[in-house]
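tool_call: predict_structure(chain=1)
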Amino acid sequence: MSAHGGDAGAPDASALHVVLPPGEPILRVVPMPADVNQHGDIFGGWIMAQVDIAGGVVAARHARGRVATVAVNSFTFKQPVLVGDVVSFFGRVVRVGRTSVTIDVEVYAQRNPGDLITVKVTEASLTYVAVGTDRRPRPIAG
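tool_result:
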């Protein structure tokens, strides 16, 4: 599985150049050759794992404690991620329930340092549940 939803008719990534959102990313990482799929793009599962980590950081901060992933509500690969890209993960709380919190995560890749190009590569929505030391759901303090 290639980690992007594009096809041969998709616009060139340089035509989709964007800027990073304001603020610091939750996570920033550079994928390595060991993270590629059989087509040479970064494996979608690697990106999914990093998104879950970034979303979990935001959820745990909001819940003030341990959280567990309970749902991947949506996940869209918009462009491929390449070896050597600087990949930045930005997350924000979009819904808070009694014991759960939903986080939207946006992922950007920066490439070609000599003439920097930034592209949005992934969007996802994940829901986490706050859990106590007994690993059972607990209320999120308001």
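agent: The chain has one helix and five strands. Proceeding to next step.
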